[in-house]
Design brief:
This is Polypeptide N-acetylgalactosaminyltransferase. It is found in: Golgi apparatus membrane. The strands form seven sheets. Strands 15, 16, 17, 18, 19, 20, 21 and 26 form an eight-stranded antiparallel sheet that branches. The relative contact order is 0.11. This protein starts with 5 loop residues before the first helix and ends with a strand. It is elongated, with a radius of gyration of 27 Å. It is α+β, with helices and mostly antiparallel strands. The protein has helices at about 5-10, 90-100, 105-110, 150-160, 185-190, 205-220, 240-245, 290-295, 320-325, 340-350, 375-390, 395-400, 420-430, 435-440, and strands at about 60, 130, 140-145, 170-175, 195-200, 225, 230-235, 250-260, 265-270, 275-280, 285-290, 305, 315-320, 350-365, 450-460, 465-470, 470-475, 485-490, 495, 500-505, 510-515, 525, 530-535, 540-545, 550-555, 565-570. Helices cover about 20% and strands about 25% of the residues. A hairpin with a 5-residue loop joins strand 24 and strand 25 (about 550-555). The protein binds ligand LR7 and manganese (II) ion (MN). Ligand LR7 binds near residues 207, 334, 335 and 369.
C-alpha cells in the first residue's frame, strides 16, 4: 500500500484546527452550467458531483485519459509504474557519489524511463468529470538551474504525454543561467524533437521568481501553468485546473502535490483534505481539514480545497489576471517568499487559491537546494519575507518581525530594497487588509497583535507600574487607570502609547522614551516572570525593584520577588 507522506512534503503539519476558512458560496458555480449554485452548499466547491451523472452535454466532454499507463514502452523498466526502484548494494557508492547533483537519488533517476507510467491516484469520480470543450490553452513554464537531466526530461515528457494537445500551447523551459554543459546544446538538441518546447536562456542568474517572470513574458497561452523542474504530471492533471479558471478567471488552482521519493523514486500518495497554510514567521506548511468541517460541509475527496497559501511551485493562473495582479514582486531574489506574496495578493485583491484533488502532480522533495545561492541563503529568504511583510501584513508585520526577525528592522543591517511600486500596486488594486484576510480566509490563524497587555504587576512590591508626569512610578494596582496600562509588544517593548520603558543612559536608571522599532536597547525578554533587557549578554540583568520604588538593573535572582513581573493578560509567549 502507498505511504501517506504529507510529512515528507514539509516538516510542519498542524492538525486539529478549529475554525476554518469561511466560505463564499456565491462565487461557486456549477461545473456543468457555469451558473451560480444554490447557497449553503459546499464551501470548497463540490461541483464535480454533478459529473457523476455521466450524461454527455453539448460543449462538454469527459476528462481525457491521455496516458501510457496501460502499456508503457517498457513494462519491466526500473521504476516503471511509479514503483520503488532499488540498486544493488555494490552500487551504493555510486548512488552516494551522485546524490549531491540533485540532493536525491540521481543515479537511480537516470535508470528510470523518462516517460515512465505512474499510478492514476485521482479519486475515482475524477475520470467521469465533465469539462468544457473550449477550455483556455496554457503555456507550461519550467524554470530550472542545474536541474538533473533525467528529472527535467521526465517533467517535460509527463506534460507532453498527459496534456490534451489542444490545451497545451507550449512548454517554456527557462534556464536560469545553469552551469552544466548537458543543459546547453544537448538539451537544445533533445528538445528540438518537440515543436511545442521552447528554451529561454537567462544571461545571468535571476532566481526562480524573475525566471518565472521571464517565462511568463514570452508565453502565448491564455493561462500560465508553473511547475518545478522535477515533477511528474499525472493522468488528467491539466483539464481540472483549466476548468476552474474557465469558471472564474480569478481562481488560482493548484494540483495536489504528491511525493516522488528522493530515495527510491517511487510515486507516493498523500493524505486527502490537505490545505496550504502558513505559521509565523511566514513558514509554509500543510494542514488537514478537520473531520467535523468536512462532515459539516458535506465535502468529498474530489472537492476543491480553499487554501490560505499555496506551496508556490505548481499552479495555473489566467495570464491576464496574473499581470493585473502585478505578477510577482520582481524585487524578490532567488528562492523563497514568493508563494506568500502571490497568495496574500490573490486573496486580498479578489481572487481565490484552491487545491484541485482531481489534478495530481508528483514532486521530488529534496532535503537541500542542490544549487548555489548567489548570496547567503538565509539572508536571501529573510529579505524576501521582509519585503512581503512590509507590503502585505499591515499592523501584523510586527508578529512576523517578533518571531526572530527583529534584526531585519535595522536598515543598516539589511537593505530590503525599494517597495514603492509594490505599495502603489496594492493601493491601485484596492486590495483588502491583512486583517480581512485573516478573518475571512484563515480565521483559525492565531495572530494576537500584542504578546501581553494590561497592568504590570510587581510581585514583591505588590504594586503596578504607572506613568506619572511622563516618568515611571508605582501605584496601587487599579485596572481602571489608563496610566497603568501597558502593552508588551512583538517588538518586545513595554509600551504605553508612543512611550517605551527604557534604561536611562549607561547608568541604572529608567525612563520613558519614544518607542523605536530599530533600537535594540528598548527590547525586553519576558520569561518566567522576569524582564531582562535584550542585548545585555551573559550577566542577566533584570528590571528589578529596590527600596524607594525605583527601577534598576541587577543580576538575575531566581527567587527575588521584586524581580517578578506579571501582565494582566497574555496572548502569546
Ligand atoms: O535560482 C533559482 N532558479 C531556478 O530556476 C532557484 C530555483 N530555480 C528553479 C529550480 O530549478 C526548480 O525547478 O525553481 C524551481 C523551484 O526550486 P526548488 O525545487 O529548489 O524549490 P522547492 O521545491 O524546494 O520549494 C518550493 O518553494 C519555493 C519557494 O521559493 C518555490 O515556490 C518552489 O516552486 C516550491 N516548490 C513547490 O511548491 C513544490 C512543493 C514543495 C512544497 C511544499
Ligand atoms: Mn522543487
Amino acid at each position: 500500500s502507498k505511504l501517506p507522506s504529507k510529512d515528507v512534503r514539509e516538516g510542519l503539519n498542524t492538525n486539529g484546527e478549529k475554525n476554518l476558512t469561511k466560505t463564499n458560496d456565491k462565487s461557486e458555480r456549477s461545473a456543468l452550467t457555469g451558473r451560480p449554485k444554490p447557497p449553503n452548499k459546499l464551501p470548497a466547491g463540490g461541483e464535480s458531483k454533478a459529473n457523476s451523472t455521466a450524461v454527455r452535454k453539448a460543449g462538454l466532454h469527459k476528462v481525457l485519459s491521455l496516458d501510457v499507463t496501460v502499456a508503457p514502452r517498457d513494462a519491466n523498466a526500473v521504476g516503471q509504474f511509479g514503483q520503488a526502484a532499488f540498486v544493488a548494494s555494490n552500487e551504493d557508492a555510486e548512488v552516494r557519489k551522485r546524490w549531491d547533483e540533485g540532493h536525491f537519488n540521481v543515479y537511480l533517476s537516470d535508470k528510470i524511463p523518462v516517460d515512465r507510467a505512474i499510478p492514476d491516484t485521482r479519486p475515482e469520480t475524477c475520470a467521469q468529470n465533465l469539462v468544457h470543450d473550449d477550455l483556455p490553452s496554457t503555456s507550461v513554464i519550467f524554470c530550472f538551474v542545474d536541474e538533473v537531466w533525467s528529472t527535467l526530461l521526465r517533467s517535460v515528457h509527463s506534460v507532453l504525454n498527459r496534456s490534451p494537445p489542444h490545451l497545451l500551447k507550449e512548454i517554456i523551459l527557462v534556464d536560469d543561467f545553469s552551469t552544466k554543459d548537458y543543459l546547453k546544446e544537448p538539451l537544445d538538441k533533445y528538445m528540438s524533437q518537440f515543436p511545442k518546447v521552447r528554451i529561454i536562456r537567462l544571461k545571468e542568474r535571476q532566481g526562480l521568481i524573475r525566471a518565472r517572470l521571464a517565462g511568463a513574458a514570452v508565453a502565448k497561452g491564455e493561462v500560465l501553468t508553473f511547475l518545478d523542474s522535477h515533477v511528474e504530471c499525472n493522468v488528467g492533471w491539466l483539464e481540472p485546473l483549466l476548468e476552474r479558471i474557465y469558471q472564474d478567471r480569478r481562481k488560482v488552482p493548484c494540483p495536489v502535490i504528491e511525493v516522488i521519493s528522493d530515495k527510491d523514486m517511487s510515486y507516493m500518495l498523500v493524505d486527502n483534505f490537505q490545505r496550504g497554510i502558513f505559521k509565523w514567521p511566514l513558514v509554509f506548511g500543510w494542514s488537514a481539514l478537520p473531520d467535523e468541517y468536512i462532515k459539516k460541509n458535506n465535502m468529498t475527496i474530489s472537492d476543491p480545497i480553499r487554501c490560505p497559501v499555496m506551496a508556490g511551485g505548481l499552479f495555473s493562473i489566467d495570464k491576464k489576471y496574473f499581470y493585473e495582479l502585478g505578477a510577482y514582486d520582481p524585487g524578490l531574489d532567488v528562492w523563497g517568499g514568493e508563494n506568500m506574496e502571490i497568495s496574500f495578493k490573490i486573496w486580498m485583491c479578489g481572487g481565490e487559491i484552491e487545491i484541485i484533488p482531481c489534478s495530481r502532480v508528483g514532486h521530488i522533495f529534496r532535503g537541500q537546494n542542490p544549487y548555489k545561492f548567489p548570496k547567503d541563503r538565509q539572508k536571501t529568504v529573510e529579505r524576501n519575507l521582509a519585503r512581503v511583510a512590509e507590503v502585505w501584513l499591515d499592523e501584523y508585520k510586527d508578529i512576523f518581525y517578533g518571531h526572530g526577525y527583529h534584526h531585519l528592522l535595522n536598515k543598516k543591517v539589511i537593505d530590503i530594497g525599494n517597495l514603492t511600486e509594490q505599495i502603489e500596486l496594492r493601493k491601485k488594486l484596492k486590495c483588502k487588509s491583512f486583517r480581512w484576510y485573516l478573518e475571512n480566509v484563515y480565521p483559525d490563524m492565531v495572530a494576537p497583535l500584542v504578546k501581553a497587555e494590561g497592568l504590570v504587576f510587581n510581585r514583591g512590591l505588590r504594586k503596578c507600574l504607572a506613568v506619572e508626569k511622563s516618568s515611571l512610578s508605582f501605584e496601587i494596582c487599579d485596572l481602571s487607570k489608563q496610566s497603568q496600562h501597558f502593552n508588551y509588544t512583538w517588538m518586545r517593548h513595554i509600551r504605553q502609547q508612543d512611550l517605551c520603558v527604557a534604561p536611562q543612559g549607561s547608568g541604572n536608571g529608567f525612563a520613558l522614551r519614544l518607542c523605536d522599532n530599530v533600537k535594540p536597547e528598548l527590547r525586553w525578554f519576558h520569561k518566567s516572570s522576569n524582564l531582562a533587557l535584550v542585548g545585555r549578554l551573559r550577566v542577566c540583568l533584570l528590571l528589578c525593584l529596590l527600596s524607594f520604588d525605583t527601577l534598576r538593573l541587577n543580576p538575575c535572582e531566581p527567587t527575588n520577588a521584586f524581580q517578578k513581573w506579571q501582565f494582566t493578560h497574555y496572548h502569546a509567549q
